[in-house]
Amino acid sequence: MRIAMIGTGYVGLVSGVCFSDFGHEVCCVDKDPRKIEMLEAGKVPIFEPGLDDLMARNVAAGRLSFTTDLKAAVDGADAVFIAVGTPTRRGDGHADLTYVMAAAAEIGQAMTGYAVVVTKSTVPVGTNRKVAEAIRVAAPEADFDVASNPEFLREGAAIDDFMRPDRVVVGVQTDRAAKVMSDIYRPLYLRDFPIMVTDLESAEMIKYAANAFLATKITFINEIAALCEKVGADVKKVSKGMGMDGRIGNKFLHAGPGYGGSCFPKDTAALARIGQEHAVPMRITETVMLVNENVKHRMVEKLRDLCDGRFNGKTVAVLGVTFKPNTDDMREAPSLTIVPALVGGGAKVRVVDPEGLREGEALLPGVVWHDDPYSAAEGADLIVLLTEWNEFRALDLPRIAGSMATARMADLRNIYSRENAMAAGFDAYDAVGR
């Protein structure tokens, strides 16, 4: 089938590349000529393990192309996916649909035959019907259907998530649209991955409800971690005991410095706003958002305690600033709260992150970037494990402790243990919920 993918951000590029690997002919569209030039040169503008090789293979096979010409890409396409950004709108917390509606109007003007216009972007309930209206206004005679196809990709594991999904959710209004979407996802259907077909509104809501629930699990265990510290319990043992219950499960029960990223902060805010607009307050979600911010600030106080109550004059090495490992994404990362607090308090901050420099250099002014943990730790007063990159899971702790001015560690991902740290020569060690 012929597919046009409008937007080459994280969702659009991963989806377009993976669809081409299914055997479809995919043309990815972006208004930014520099991005298209980069993609045509075989360079991937985001960091996602395996994406560069997969992209190169399908370009070489002639199934994947890139262009700034939306009209040419849409002409003759069986499906047109909208995968543009929906950032949180300033002032009200709602998802900004400016790019979605602009894309819908352009698609309508470019269509020359029947196509399914598929919203891949995360959008509030009711948006797909607005997309249909925008297309009809732009092209009253257009022959099309709309569909909702929310993404559930984890940064750092997006290709595997796309190729081996827990489920694919498709919201449609007609059998004709359902048939097109079925043909697109046929490679997954043949391998018995579940394809759930529903109405438009339910598909839109599934995305928000799923992300809000996962954010709730993370925030819940972070609150339990704070209580564990007060009562002498170990949150790692508590979460393991909870996760053994089949009704709960062990995923997203790892205590840490709070959630971040492109999805959870934006989607919880949007769901809360949708609830307000329909007079059904999302009290749990609203509380999750508040508690998550408090968790980040609680981490700052942990670090302050390890610095004898003040950051001024201290040297702090921070390991990891992206919101999670295996990505270069800094959006809403806990580091954006924690590192500025260190710098603002007068600390000299050294940062190490395998992929964080590209975005972090602008977002974290006043820090010094290092290539490895050992150079960053030399002469430091505190080392902070903030993002659990694999490179930080097997550090030579005696070497680090021996090189520091005062050997103190804040393990905000519970990678190590107090016993290991103290045996390695650290004078002080603090973790989360232990």
UniProtKB/TrEMBL annotation:
<comment type="similarity">
    <text>Belongs to the UDP-glucose/GDP-mannose dehydrogenase family.</text>
</comment>
<dbReference type="InterPro" id="IPR036291">
    <property type="entry name" value="NAD(P)-bd_dom_sf"/>
</dbReference>
<feature type="binding site">
    <location>
        <position position="35"/>
    </location>
    <ligand>
        <name>NAD(+)</name>
    </ligand>
</feature>
<dbReference type="InterPro" id="IPR036220">
    <property type="entry name" value="UDP-Glc/GDP-Man_DH_C_sf"/>
</dbReference>
<dbReference type="Pfam" id="PF03720">
    <property type="entry name" value="UDPG_MGDP_dh_C"/>
</dbReference>
<feature type="binding site">
    <location>
        <begin position="152"/>
        <end position="155"/>
    </location>
    <ligand>
        <name>substrate</name>
    </ligand>
</feature>
<feature type="binding site">
    <location>
        <position position="266"/>
    </location>
    <ligand>
        <name>NAD(+)</name>
    </ligand>
</feature>
<dbReference type="GO" id="GO:0000271">
    <property type="term" value="P:polysaccharide biosynthetic process"/>
</dbReference>
<dbReference type="InterPro" id="IPR008927">
    <property type="entry name" value="6-PGluconate_DH-like_C_sf"/>
</dbReference>
<dbReference type="InterPro" id="IPR014027">
    <property type="entry name" value="UDP-Glc/GDP-Man_DH_C"/>
</dbReference>
<dbReference type="Pfam" id="PF00984">
    <property type="entry name" value="UDPG_MGDP_dh"/>
</dbReference>
<dbReference type="GO" id="GO:0051287">
    <property type="term" value="F:NAD binding"/>
</dbReference>
<feature type="binding site">
    <location>
        <position position="86"/>
    </location>
    <ligand>
        <name>NAD(+)</name>
    </ligand>
</feature>
<feature type="binding site">
    <location>
        <position position="30"/>
    </location>
    <ligand>
        <name>NAD(+)</name>
    </ligand>
</feature>
<dbReference type="InterPro" id="IPR028357">
    <property type="entry name" value="UDPglc_DH_bac"/>
</dbReference>
<dbReference type="GO" id="GO:0003979">
    <property type="term" value="F:UDP-glucose 6-dehydrogenase activity"/>
</dbReference>
<feature type="binding site">
    <location>
        <position position="324"/>
    </location>
    <ligand>
        <name>substrate</name>
    </ligand>
</feature>
<feature type="binding site">
    <location>
        <position position="260"/>
    </location>
    <ligand>
        <name>substrate</name>
    </ligand>
</feature>
<keyword id="KW-0560">Oxidoreductase</keyword>
<keyword id="KW-0520">NAD</keyword>
<feature type="active site" description="Nucleophile">
    <location>
        <position position="263"/>
    </location>
</feature>
<feature type="binding site">
    <location>
        <position position="155"/>
    </location>
    <ligand>
        <name>NAD(+)</name>
    </ligand>
</feature>
<feature type="binding site">
    <location>
        <position position="331"/>
    </location>
    <ligand>
        <name>NAD(+)</name>
    </ligand>
</feature>
<dbReference type="InterPro" id="IPR014026">
    <property type="entry name" value="UDP-Glc/GDP-Man_DH_dimer"/>
</dbReference>
<feature type="domain" description="UDP-glucose/GDP-mannose dehydrogenase C-terminal">
    <location>
        <begin position="317"/>
        <end position="418"/>
    </location>
</feature>
<dbReference type="InterPro" id="IPR001732">
    <property type="entry name" value="UDP-Glc/GDP-Man_DH_N"/>
</dbReference>
<dbReference type="Pfam" id="PF03721">
    <property type="entry name" value="UDPG_MGDP_dh_N"/>
</dbReference>
<feature type="binding site">
    <location>
        <position position="122"/>
    </location>
    <ligand>
        <name>NAD(+)</name>
    </ligand>
</feature>
<dbReference type="InterPro" id="IPR017476">
    <property type="entry name" value="UDP-Glc/GDP-Man"/>
</dbReference>
<protein>
    <recommendedName>
        <fullName>UDP-glucose 6-dehydrogenase</fullName>
        <ecNumber>1.1.1.22</ecNumber>
    </recommendedName>
</protein>
<feature type="binding site">
    <location>
        <begin position="252"/>
        <end position="256"/>
    </location>
    <ligand>
        <name>substrate</name>
    </ligand>
</feature>
<dbReference type="GO" id="GO:0006065">
    <property type="term" value="P:UDP-glucuronate biosynthetic process"/>
</dbReference>
<comment type="pathway">
    <text>Nucleotide-sugar biosynthesis; UDP-alpha-D-glucuronate biosynthesis; UDP-alpha-D-glucuronate from UDP-alpha-D-glucose: step 1/1.</text>
</comment>
<feature type="binding site">
    <location>
        <position position="207"/>
    </location>
    <ligand>
        <name>substrate</name>
    </ligand>
</feature>
